[in-house]
Amino acid sequence: MARNRGGINGYYYRDTYAPIDPDYESRAVEREIIAEILWDAAQAPTTPLSGPFLFHVIEGTARIADYGERAKQYAREHRPGSVGYSWADKSDFKVFLDAPVVIVISGHADNSASVQDCNRAGQNLLLSTHARGLGGCWVGAPMLWLRSLETRKELGIAEAFEPFVAITLGYATSVPPSRSRERPEIVWA
């Protein structure tokens, strides 16, 4: 039986096959609000060896849109032979959804648990975003580009860190409709 996703509709995960992307207002998000959201994200549990997360805040709708076009071009030129990169060929696909802010969360590159730590921080970030009346969307499309050496240098991501999460942030103009999902299979072991 299909069930409406329901729950918190202020944050989203971008699914390139069935998007439910938010539309953002053009106004900037105040840095004080962003700092509070990042403080909430930093409260995520980590493995003992992880140390702090590294947050990169990218601001400016035009700058971010340009980065999105660069991410698409990079994906077209460097995509692996696997599925999942058809979005790079779509002229109307907006990697960062015209958002006024993008948050990149990086973890220690030499810690195999960093991806999980950064994912927990991303979840906290989205919950904090929603609690403050903003919209956010977890975007996977730019990750290939964000991990490139050239992009890492440009954004100031230290060699000791690797970006694992990218989330758009802004004042949402509306809440996209939820989509139905089949209930997952549960195995009681």
Kindly describe this structure.
- By secondary structure, the protein is of the alpha+beta class.
- The protein has a domain at 53-178: NADH Oxidase (3-Layer(aba) Sandwich).
- 31% of the residues lie in helices and 20% in strands.
- The chain has 5 helices and 7 strands; from the N terminus they run ββαβαβαβααββ.
- Strands 2-5-6-4-3 form a 5-stranded mixed β-sheet. The chain has a two-stranded antiparallel sheet with strand order 1-7.
Summary keywords:
189 residues, NADH Oxidase, 5-stranded mixed sheet, two-stranded antiparallel sheet, 5 helices, disordered N terminus
Layout: helices, strands, pairs:
Layout: E1 2-4, E2 11-13, H1 31-41, E3 54-59, H2 61-78, E4 101-108, H3 114-131, E5 135-138, H4 143-146, H5 149-155, E6 161-170, E7 180-182
Parallel strand pairs: 2-5
Antiparallel strand pairs: 1-7, 3-4, 4-6, 5-6
Helix pairs in contact: 1-3
User: Helicity, in percent?
Assistant: 25-40%
Largest sheet properties: 5 strands, mixed
What's the count of strands?
A: 7
- CATH topology value of the domain at 53-178: NADH Oxidase
Structural class by helix and strand composition: alpha+beta
Q: Which term fits the overall shape?
A: globular
Q: What portion of the residues fall into strands of 2 or more residues?
A: 15-25%
**Number of helices, counting only DSSP H or I runs of 4 residues or more:** 5
**Which residues form runs of ≥5 with pLDDT under 50?**
1-19
Distance between the termini: 23 Å
Which CATH class of the domain at 53-178?
Alpha Beta
Radius of gyration: 17 Å
Mean pLDDT: 87
CATH architecture verdict of the domain at 53-178: 3-Layer(aba) Sandwich
Kindly report the spatial arrangement of strands forming the biggest sheet: 2-5-6-4-3
Instruction: Write the H/E string, N to C.
Output: EEHEHEHEHHEE
Name of the CATH homologous superfamily of the domain at 53-178: NADH Oxidase
